Amino acid sequence: MLVHAALITVTTALLHLSVVQSAPQSPHLIFIVADDLGWNDVGYHNPDIISPNIDKLAGSGIRLNQSYVQPLCSPSRSAFMTGVYPFRMGLQHMVIGESQDVCAPLNRKFFPQILKENGYMTHMIGKWHLGFCKWECTPTYRGFDSFYGFYSGGEDYYTHVYPNGYDYRYNLTVNTEAAGNYSTYEFAARAEQIIQDHDQAKPLYLYMPFQSVHMPLQSVHILLQVGTHMLYLYMPFQSVHMPLQVPDKYLEMYPNIKNKNRKALSAMVTSLDDAIGRVVTALQDKDMYQNSIIVFTADNGGWTIFGGNNYPLRGGKVTIFEGGTRAAAFIHSPLLKQTGVIYDGMMHAVDWFPTLASALGITYNDSLDQDGVDQWEAITTLAPSKRSEIVYNMDYHPAPVEGQSAIRFGDYKLIEGYPGLYQGWYKPDSVDQGVEISAGQLANMTLDTPAVQELMRSGQPQSLAKNHYLFNLKDDPTEHNNLYDKLPEVVQQLQERLAEQRKRYVPPNFPPNSPKANPKHFGGVWSPGWC
């Protein structure tokens, strides 16, 4: 029996190493998230963007051509951390606001907790955005040995002020030393320090959800006084308009881009690229690079009105069209046998947890009840995807500005209900992303439609039932040709699949803002400890 068990163990190890070169210990893992990065915002998709480090990593790795995320920040991050669809945790509606007494469910085990149990040193640098009303919700309570960054959805890149309060931490301590320093530089420097100081007797997990290329935020209260329009309810939790922030030297690299926001966002991508280059160099200098796996992904599509671009895909952030949910993503590692290739199989944000656990040779208990599937062998051998179905979102809480419900099965995608705020195809220069546009103008421009007004009056999801789309994504990846009335049998099949998934639906946990969260109660700092 012992011999048999040993053979099983050896066989399992050999299977794992069949897709990577042999390594002396468990690989290091660097997981990089680019905030609000559009499909068309990287150099390997768009030659107008200067991103040599990202392009080199992608070009010598495995590009993921159909890697899906949620249409907004918090839902995607919850999927990364748990391997569970947000609609099953009540996190599918908008994002977690800084004044809401909610966080990613504490009964769900996070990916870094699994890694810690298997000997990894776990560090986080950057944007959390998974709730912080109580300390138990914060990174160092959820599996990270250290945390350097901010809790909320965004902040000023230099002052690190979120509306009404300062938001920057080193572990549990407020870090005022970072004030005045550009956050992308700060995050790169912290990564360099962690790598330089790392004891290679243990493998490293470094989670780096950058703030770039998300814009900073503006005062919540002005918007809330305007009214209860759906856009105003949404914008305080994500952003309203402020000029994008980036050092001048990066702006000077884009003399031919006239649109101010597009120019600034392109420059922010280049500054992000420099930061990623610094991380890779640090790994090489420490002799850790050869035994590292680097993952890069966006958390949602680019936001077209603020400089992001997803062309030729339809829509963008806050939509369940492809432009809002299909991420620029890749895996890079010297351990990979096949490199410089494109993987065209379906993958979803929930798959990263089991996929990377498999890549690291880690097994864990099935009781986590995940939606994610292990795609490591499929991706690294270019085999067919392990999944045939993806749920884009399922949100029946008024008003579902990020899209109501959509599912893909095979090549076909069904959208039922409101698809999200921005429904067109936008070239980089086709939308006025200038600083003069106001929240009121946005509301009139994007939401003044009969269907949306009906939803706002009734508050009922069925009020948008007349919105139907069916696309064949293999033949029509840019979603131009609505086949809903032409293929009733396919529609019925996908409606049945959506109804089956709906049985697992958990209503959104989206409480009103609490005055207890106001930074004035915590010395002008956004802090846990009030719920």
Automatic annotation (TrEMBL):
- Leader sequence range is 1-22
Domain Sulfatase N-terminal: where?
A: 27-362
A GO molecular function assigned to this protein is: sulfuric ester hydrolase activity
Superkingdom, natural source: Eukaryota
The answer on whether this UniProt entry bears the keyword Iron reads no
Q: Region Disordered: what ranges?
A: 505-531
Kindly list the cofactors needed.
Ca(2+)
Q: Which CDD domains match?
A: 4-S
What PROSITE patterns has UniProt attached to this entry?
SULFATASE_1, SULFATASE_2
Record bears the keyword rRNA-binding: no
Per UniProt, which keywords does this protein have?
A: Calcium, Glycoprotein, Hydrolase, Metal-binding, Signal
Q: Please report which protein family the annotation says this sequence is part of.
A: Belongs to the sulfatase family.
Name this protein carries in UniProt: Sulfatase N-terminal domain-containing protein
